[in-house]
Every structure is written in structure tokens, then in C-alpha cells.
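INTERNAL AUDIT FORM
Audit reference: QA-55
Scope: verify that the stored structure record matches its stored sequence.
Auditor: D.O.
Record contents follow.
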Amino acid sequence: MLAVVLGVIKASWSQESAFKISEIFPIETAHSYVGFSIKYMGYAMVRGRFSDFRGSIRYDEKDLTKTSVTLLINVGSIDTGNEWRDEDLKSDNWFGSKAYPRILFISNKAALTPQGLLMTGDLTMRRITKTISIPMTYPPHVLKDVREDSQIIFTGAIALNRIEFGVEGKKWAGIKEGITAVSDDVNVELTILGKRINAPNFKYWVADGSSPHGKIYSIAKNNGVEKALAAFESLRAAPGNKIDVETLNTVGMMFLKENQVEDAIALFKRNITIYPNLSLVYESYGEAVATLGNWSEALKYYRLALEKDPDNVNVQEIIRHIKN
């Protein structure tokens, strides 16, 4: 799967024009939906969903043909409301989730239609990759919710032949009275919400002065980043401290959203020295330098983020739009 991702990324470097990091909208799982329905014995409709998925969308409302998406689905999260059936679906008889734990969709083209966008891309399931096109509808512009966060929402559906992707379910392929027990055709339904959390909402992440990140943010705002980092080291050295990778990352992201980019970079740099094996620290630093337009530096750190976590789909989506 990583080879598929890197191949698409490499091909995209020479195809995509420059873009802004603000065009990237991480998918919010809580308000998104990846579901399906399939006929049983020709009449009964069995419905299910995948509860664990992640992804990212590139969206430029001035040029909708630049829209793209990377979506990764955890097969083990399949839920049809029946435990026995779910375990069977995860078995080698169907999805084979142990050997093939992920379903991956990477778009490579967006075409305007009277109904919306036709998103074409490569769908990989059980290491079988096929090009599909999904018709999607969407609002005419970026939406702002009650918390001032920026959102884009796409809905769509497509019929897939499961046999073409190796999801055979041979035990259920028998024909009785001219009807296949489980239909070959699966209807897939999608609601994908991408969100950028903006400063008015993100400020609540650092509002609690009793929390480590709230305390460090307050010191940084009032006394500067250098004193905040000194206070951070004191907190980190204290017995039973609650410091983790999110402490400096959260403060840095707040500064980034407040357009205090250099301060954010200083915090992210320190986080890299403390947590050099975590993808998040390189991703955050990459976003900060990308905000300044330093794409060569951003690409270097985004690659490091992907090296630490090959399933970091937000980074995958970003990298394929950066010219090498």
C-alpha cells in the first residue's frame, strides 16, 4: 500500500501547481460517514459502516478541479450490527483484514458536472487497485460553523462489484431459486466533512491555565517563547508531570493559527528534539514552514513525518501537491 501511495505522490509532483497549506482540510471522522448496503437473498438489505477511517482533502473554492482526497479505511472497524457477521466479514472469506487491514482511495482527477464533482481515483482493496469515479455533491463554498471553524462537506454514492476486488465470500456465493445469497454489487455511501479548526475555537485548547499547554501558552504570550520553553523544561523535570508530545504542539498550533509563525516554529523545533520518533512533530513543523512558503524545507519534514508513520494520510495528501 505504501508503494501505491508513494507512486501517486511521485507522479503528482510534476502534475500539480503550487498550492496553499490552507487548502488542506483533514477529514473529521465524527461528522463523516463511510457506509454500504448489499442485498441478501435478493430482497433483504443489509447495511453496515466502517467506523475507523482517516483522510484529508485539498480544496480550492476558486478552482474546484484541483479538489483531491486521500482516504484510508480500517477494515477491522466494519460494523453491520451483528458480531458474528462482522467477524466473518473480517475473515479471509471476505476482506481478510489481518493480511489486508486497509482500504485506500487516492483521487487523481476532479471534473465539474451539472450535479457536482466527479472524483476519479485509485481504490485499493486486498492489494487489488482499480480506477473508479464517484459523483459527489458539495456546498458552493467553504462553510463556517458556530465555532468559526472552516468546513467543506461532500456526499456521494457508488456501486462496486466486490468480486473485482477479491471480496468473494465464497461460502455465501451459492444460488438458491435463481438468487445469489449475497449480491456481487455493493452500494457505497459517503459523507465526508473536512475541517480546519480556526483560532476562535482552538483558543479553548489553551484556555485552561492549570493544564501544561495552557500554562506554557500563557507564559509565551506574556513573556515570550524563550521563557515559555524554560518553564516547559521545569515542568518536564517535575515528578509525575503530565507532559507529552501534545503540550508544545498544541501551543505551537495556537501560535500558528494566530499567525505568529516564528514562535510556532521555535516550539515545534523543540518538540522534534524531545520526540524524534513521532510523525506529529515533523508534520507540525512542515505546516509552519509551508505557511511561510518554504516548500523545500516543508517537503523535507513532511517526508520525515511519512517515514515515521506511513499511514499519515494528511501528510500523504500534502506531499503529492508539493513540487519537488
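Auditor finding: record pair retrieved intact. The chain is about 35% helix and 30% strand.
Action required: none
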